Amino acid sequence: MNCRKFDLTLIGANDLEVVRKVFKMKVYARISIGSTNSETEKWTPPDKHGEENPAWNYTMNYTIAETMVRHYGTMLVIKLYCRRKLGDRYVGEVHADMRDLYEHAQLYGGSAAMCYPVKKGSVSSKGELRFSCRFGECVSIDNMLLAQGIVDWAKSM
Question: How far is CA 40 from CA 21, 31, 81, 132, in A?
Answer without folding.
Answer: 32, 9, 18, 20
